[in-house]
């Protein structure tokens, strides 16, 4: 089973590990594309104006340029400890049990715009690059989509069974769609109004995804089928149900 998360634009600084080693990351078939993009992003940082345009930075975000300039030499930290923001605050990786962190190393993936999908405990630097960034001569969809899709398919559906739960936002799905497969499910966070109608959530969906992922990690069970997952969810306090074909709905109360 793999749980595939989006990244966050906000990240913690620093880290206690050696600089980025691209060949140490999950999905080694992506190493070449990672190298090209990391080199281009670090080089772009030499031109402040070009970087501001490419990354759509505001005046208070210029420190992100220094992060990018040093991304190949700055210290690293595990993926689940690097990202911040609503989803990752709810995940609260620093309070996970040792067993849950070990499980994250094998079963949690985060789709970085810079590095493609990486493992939960892979070591990464602080950087700034989003799915909608516009690097000169390197359109991210063209750079990533085909190879990321192939890597996900080869890893998740290699005959070993298990599920691929895709919790990414649409922007990151576009950088590497997961192929339709009986064991691939896209998770949508929804709520039900007093009128009985189901509505998708926007901001609050991040918190729900973080809480759900945390529970999966703490449970540390690699579900082989969606029926097993659906049976477990209420025992952990979640309402999870089938949605449209290839989708699951995580039902959250309120927030209308």
TrEMBL record:
A Gene Ontology term for the protein's cellular component: cytosol
Q: Which GO terms describe its biological process?
A: response to hydroperoxide
Question: Which InterPro entries does the record associate with it?
Answer: YaaA
Q: Quote the Pfam families the UniProt record gives.
A: H2O2_YaaD
Would you tell me the protein name for this molecule? Peroxide stress protein YaaA
Originating organism: Cryobacterium adonitolivorans
């Amino acid at each position: 089973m793999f749980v595939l998360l989006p990244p966050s634009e906000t990240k913690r600084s620093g880290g206690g590990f050696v600089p980025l080693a691209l060949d140490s990351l999950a999905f080694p078939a992506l190493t070449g594309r990672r190298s090209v993009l990391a080199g281009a992003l670090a080089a772009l940082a030499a031109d402040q104006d070009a970087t501001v345009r490419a990354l759509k930075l505001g005046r208070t975000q210029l420190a992100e340029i220094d992060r990018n300039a040093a991304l190949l030499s700055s210290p690293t930290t595990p993926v689940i400890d690097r990202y911040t923001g609503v989803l990752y605050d709810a995940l609260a990786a620093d309070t996970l049990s040792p067993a849950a962190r070990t499980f994250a190393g094998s079963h949690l993936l985060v789709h970085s715009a810079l590095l493609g999908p990486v493992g939960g405990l892979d070591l990464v630097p602080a950087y700034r690059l989003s799915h909608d960034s516009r690097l000169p001569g390197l359109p991210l969809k063209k750079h990533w989509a085909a190879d990321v899709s192939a890597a996900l398919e080869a890893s998740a559906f290699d005959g070993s069974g298990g599920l691929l739960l895709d919790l990414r936002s649409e922007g990151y799905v576009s950088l590497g769609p997961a192929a339709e497969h009986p064991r691939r499910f896209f998770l949508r966070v929804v709520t039900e109004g007093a009128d009985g109608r189901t509505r998708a959530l926007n901001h609050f969906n991040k918190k729900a995804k973080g809480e759900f992922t945390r529970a999966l990690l703490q449970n540390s069970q690699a579900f082989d089928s969606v029926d097993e997952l659906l049976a477990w969810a209420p025992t952990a306090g979640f309402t999870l149900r089938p949605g449209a074909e290839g989708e699951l709905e995580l039902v959250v109360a309120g927030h209308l």
